[in-house]
Amino acid sequence: MRRALIPLTALALSSVLLAAPLQAQGTEPAQAATLIADSVALDGNNVVRARGNVEVFYDGAQLKATAITYDATTEQLTIEGPITVYYGENTTVLASAAEMDSELRNGILQSARLVLDQQIQLAAAEVRRIDGRYTRLSNTVASSCKVCASDPVPLWQIRAREVIHDELERQLYFKDARLEVAGLPIFYLPRLRLPDPTLERANGFLIPTVTSDSIVGQGIELPYFIAIGDSKDLTIAPLITTNSRTVKLRYRQALTDGEMEFNGALTRDDIRPDEWRGYLFADGSIGLRDDFVLNFDIEATSDKAYLLEYDFSDTDRLESSIELTRTRRDAYFSTDFTHYRSLRDSEQNPEIPTEVLELTYERRFKPQGIGGFATATFNGQGFIRQSDTDGPTGRDMGRASMRLDWYRTWQMQNGMLFKAIGAASGDYYVVRQDSAYEETQFHVTPTAGVELRWPFQKTEANGVVHTLEPVAQFLWTDTSMADVPNEVSTLPEFDEGNLFALSRFPGFDRYERGFRANLGASWTRYDPDGWTLGVTMGKIFRDTDVNSFSTGSGLDGNESDWLAAATLVLPNNLSLINRTLFNNEFDFTKNETRVSWVNEDVLLSSSYVWMVEDASQSRFSDTSEWTMDAEYRIANNWIGKVDWRYDFVEGSAARAGVGLEYVNECISVDLSVSRRFTSSSNVDPSTNVGLKVTLLGFGEKNRRQSVRECY
What is the pLDDT of residues 17-75, one digit of tens each? Predict the structure, then answer.
């Protein structure tokens, strides 16, 4: 009961004593301090003594101590420890004894420690607080490692003659700094500046990476980060190896309504000693007036081998584009220009479409009288080849299409959904530099159909919910067509996403024709324990085969292959997806399996794809590939990594990598070894070894892992 009453008395005393100095100077009264203690005594008129579980609250700071003596004449606090001072949420000072001013802004603390964001700990013989902003530590040891009684030497530590912490700038300044690992000196720096753990962006060097590559050579990359204001930054990363000198650049900027990023590099090496080599990748999105958005994407490189040799990207076709779009509730507009450049040995850039221009406008509305919903679409596309030869290798082409789609749905008394479907398209084609086709053609394509859906749901006594929805769609499209080359819809897909589409061709230049029936059903089981199983099956029947689907698509012939897809989602973040195509004799055309599993110990993404050979899709043999990217926590602080791409047809790996990472509360050591087995006339196989060591605590708090255990 005594301690509950004392704070009221202490508040009155400290309000007078601690505020008096500022009031005497004719300034605004200082914020009153609150003093709580087991006992408070007034010694004369100028000294207040507090003892037992003492706490002082003043202007956001909190002090805990065994005893405090305040002398109003000198305006000083004499504090007996153990002492704990909290400055906001991120700065804590621990000491055995201290002398401070009445505002806790200036003072000297003996045998003190400074703890920043519960990560970095700095121990010093003496700590001085200056102006409530700076903390100066003498003869300091800094580390974020846990120290065990059986092993009092931290894994790493920085010893310095003096350290100054700037709370406003959130920086640590070291003088005569020496890094020690397991007690052994590694290197010395007369001056060192590091961010404190609360700072997310600051100018300075980032974590270096030591690398060894069988082509590029052995070397080190040392990035330097420059914060250009709050909305943009630049990273300059010199990479010096035994065979090359490279400067990597990354520029990022956040806009009021958008963002953009530029990545590039410039290289001189012994691989091509007389050439400058480099690349530039850039992308961005910029919001304009009236809901317009400008998107751009730039991909350029000096030669076909550069991106792979330096492991910047494994893309084999560069695509640079600029696009203007606007999306509203019932309207969509898009126009874009794209430039392509192939890095493949099998393709010659003059013989493929390199410049493509496309424009799309869609408007959705409700027709008067007939009801339902309608969409009017205009799509125009044109491309050119650089070759002047007559025929497929020099052909240029343009197309303008108008399309009107309409549907209306009725619900019957038995729950069945009936949908009426109608569509009409008009296409105008221009073909140049190919005498096998007429130069201009115009064609109108009508489509009509109906769709029936009958959804069912059942709930069992144990809480399991089943849903079943059979679907039958009957469509007719005019079988006559324009005689034009297929340039866009060369890679049709057949999956559960387009089982009930009007056409399986991906582009506007082709339509699925004739009378056809799209039949299928989906079933889903929802278990109260949190797992879900879904299955979809379907098939397409046609009266005549007037389309040009390839055998490898699973869509050719009067009957398509059977489509079967299954999805299993378990409550521990494990998901399994399988999609397969097979005919009535169970001869498979395609099978794809994907597994994803994410929890505290496992991060797994793996897939297997098998596809039958299809020359029209540039697959001259069966495809059978397995890819995997996984991380597994082997032990409390150890993480194993593996990535893998294996070609079963070739009987060899295309790429493989293994890694081992040790992470605890104060350090991360990441060792990786990767091998690229693929080769071409431009690129040889290569092996890369990388080592990255990170001292955690300096702006790396998101990477902190399990704390080491003491034994």
Answer: 333 333 333 344 456 678 888 888 888 778 888 999 998 888 778 889 999 998 888 88
pTM above 0.90, yes or no: no
- Please say whether the beta carbons of 593 and 608 come within 8 A: yes
Opening angle at CA 584, ends 581 and 587, nearest 5: 55
pLDDT tens for residues 59-95? 778 889 999 998 888 888 899 989 998 887 788 888 9
Q: For the segment 92-129, what is each residue's pLDDT rounded down to a tens digit? A: 888 999 888 877 788 888 888 888 887 888 999 888 98
d(CA 391, CA 227): 54
Report CA torsion sign: 234, 239, 240, 246.
negative
Q: Is the bond leading into 82 cis (omega within 30 degrees of zero)?
A: yes
Close Cβ partners of 398 (under 8 Å, ≥ 6 residues apart) = 380, 381, 382, 383, 429, 430
Domains by residue range for the chain, with CATH? 2-200 (2.60.450.10)
Written as six digits, the tokens of 169 are: 């700038």
Nearest CA-CA partner of 539 in 518, 516, 522: 518
Cα separation, 171 vs 193, in Å, equals 7
The enclosing H or E element of 21 equals: helix 2-24
554 token code pair: 């699973």
Mean pLDDT of 450-473: 96
Helix (H, G, I), strand (E, B), or coil: what is residue 23? helix
For the four alpha carbons of 126, 129, 130 and 133, in that order, the dihedral sign comes to: positive
Nearest to 58 by CA among 40, 36, 28: 36
What radius of gyration do the chain's Cα atoms show? 35
Coil, strand or helix at 19: helix
Residue 624, exposed/middle/buried by CB under 10 A (0-12, 13-18, 19+)?
A: middle
